[in-house]
Amino acid sequence: MLNQRVVVDNRSIYVVPIGDVGASLNAGQTFEDYSLGVYQIQDPRARVQRLLKGGYITQSVENLAFPNISGTYAFDVVPSVWVTKGSHSMTLLMKPGSSSVSGSYTYNGWFREQHTNAFQGPVSGEVSQGGTATLRVSGGEGTYHIVIAGNNIKLTGPDLFYNEPPITLAGTGPGGSVTVPKFLYAMSSGLTQFLTASHDAIKAGTIQVDDLSELLLLTDTHAGARFRWHVDLCEPAKQVLGQNTVAGTGHVEFGKQPNGEWVLTGYDF
Predict the structure, then answer these.
(1) Residue 76, class by beta-carbon neighbours within 10 Å (0-12 exposed, 13-18 middle, 19+ buried)?
(2) How far apart are CA 246 and CA 207, in angstroms?
(3) Full-model pTM
(4) Are 160 and 138 a contacting pair, CB within 8 Å?
């Protein structure tokens, strides 16, 4: 009786929301290869990964070229009211497959022959396709214009330790470019056929009521009970949730008609 009522009420289809998956896909291209990541089971990226491996999401790759600024750099500070003389040295590294930059720096400054400033620490940042690099040190952050000619590299940008005119860090390194893959993900037709009209949930399967329990006569004409239900999930829903079935309990109520027949009057999951 209850299974039939659920169908009549158009509540027999169990849906699995995938808004977080859709958000990951709608974000456009990303440098993250979801097929290789290690994620917690309910992480949206883990859901994308499982759908990807099941063929319900497609992946395309575009290889992008970024200027390779790996190398060693030096710059002699122009004398000013802040410093009589000074020098920068910096070592930068870019790894294959990434536009990120890491490294270290050393700065020394003298004022009237006294060694007044000495800074050193890590460098972090990233390179853009447009020919600029954003570098961060303890003194701040700056954007530098990149010029590469063979093994000679120049980075022109702010002096992060003193508010002086732009400086040019001259360095040597391998030059050339670093190739970085960028990934684009999309839903396949194998997934879209299971989606709701709004495309934000999967029609995951039919709710099946298993049995009633705890039947209780509340009044002479009113009774209530609990019921168990389960859904055998469709394949894409299995990938999203990382399980084969879902189950739960609900409450159902019955009313006694004047002719003595008991009928279902309401239920909730």
Answers:
(1) exposed
(2) 9
(3) 0.67
(4) no
HSE (CB half, 13 Å, CA atoms) of 130?
A: 6
The full set of domains in the chain, from first to last, is 1-17+200-269 (3.10.450), 19-64+180-196 (no CATH), 69-175 (2.40.128)
Q: Contact at 8 Å (CB) between 16 and 207?
A: no
Question: For residue 268, what are the β-bridge partners?
Answer: 251
Per-residue pLDDT of the chain (269 residues; tens, 9 = 90+): 666 766 656 678 899 988 777 777 765 668 889 899 899 888 888 888 999 999 999 999 999 999 999 999 988 766 666 556 667 788 999 999 999 999 998 877 666 666 566 778 999 999 998 899 999 988 688 999 999 999 999 999 987 766 567 888 899 999 999 999 999 888 899 999 999 988 889 999 999 988 888 888 888 899 998 999 999 999 999 988 889 999 999 998 888 999 989 888 888 88
Q: Which residue has the tokens 């972090």?
A: 124
The secondary element (H helix, E strand) that includes residue 238 is helix 235-241
What is the C-alpha to C-alpha distance for residues 265 and 8, in angstroms, rounded to an integer? 13
Rounded Cα distance between 265 and 44, Å, is: 39
Please give the DSSP secondary-structure letter assigned to residue 195.
Answer: B
Q: What are the E-state strand segments in the chain?
A: 13-17, 57-67, 71-77, 85-93, 100-111, 114-127, 132-137, 140-149, 152-157, 167-172, 177-187, 201-206, 208-219, 222-232, 245-256, 262-268
Residue type at 149?
A
Q: Is the Cβ–Cβ distance between 242 and 261 less than 8 Å?
A: no
User: Residues 158, 3: contact at Cβ < 8 Å?
Assistant: no
